[in-house]
Amino acid sequence: MIRLAVGAVLLLSLAGCGKATRESDDPIPASSPEAANASASTAVAAASTAAAAETPAAFMQCKVCHTTEPDRNLIGPSLAGVYGRRAGSLAGYPYSTAIKQAGLTWDEGTLDTFLTSPMKAVPGTKMTYAGIKDPAARREVIAYLETL
């Protein structure tokens, strides 16, 4: 889905190459080719945003223990707003001492390391999950977490 959206954006970008820019401040007539291109660009941008927020397949295993709803924890804490949050800081969740004292802030690098092998990254964590071994799947999950 993401590849399709990116491809569409590239095609639309190339379609506009070599066209003169409008120097007038007059509005673009709705029936003009420029209006059609603008409309298509808006649709592709919306599709790209939706694709970025689409739940990746690799995240389905995370949903066994985590929710993406704020203030709703399962076995693991809610992942809503996790990107940029300090590890072990979500109020109301009983984190392990190890994760509270890890000194991590969840960003691309820390999530990549942690999701590769949580128990190696933070020995003593309650997250007894083997990890996401496929780097591409991990990147998709991290990109998704950033949207939450």
Summarize the structure.
This protein has 148 residues and is mainly α. It has helices spanning 2-15, 33-53, 97-100, 108-116, 118-121, 135-147.
Characterization of this structure:
The protein has 148 residues and is mostly helical. It has helices at residues 2-15, 33-53, 97-100, 108-116, 118-121, 135-147. Helix 4 packs across helix 6 (135-147). The radius of gyration is 21 Å and the shape is globular. The two termini are 19 Å apart. Residues 1-28 and 35-52 have low confidence and may be disordered.
Topology:
Layout: H1 2-15, H2 33-53, H3 97-100, H4 108-116, H5 118-121, H6 135-147
Order of SSEs: HHHHHH
Note the main sheet: none
CATH class of the largest domain: Mainly Alpha
CATH topology of the largest domain: Cytochrome Bc1 Complex, Chain D, domain 2
**What oligomeric arrangement do these chains adopt?**
single chain
The residue fraction in helices comes out at 40-55%
Number of helices: 6
Structural class: mainly alpha
Counting structural domains, the number is 2
Low-confidence stretches: 1-28, 35-52
Tell me the distance between the termini. 19 Å
What is the averaged pLDDT score? 77
- Spell out the CATH superfamily of the largest domain: Cytochrome c-like domain
What fraction of the residues are assigned to beta strands by DSSP? under 5%
Global morphology? globular
**Which architecture of the largest domain would the CATH scheme give at its second level?**
Orthogonal Bundle
**How many beta-strand elements?**
0
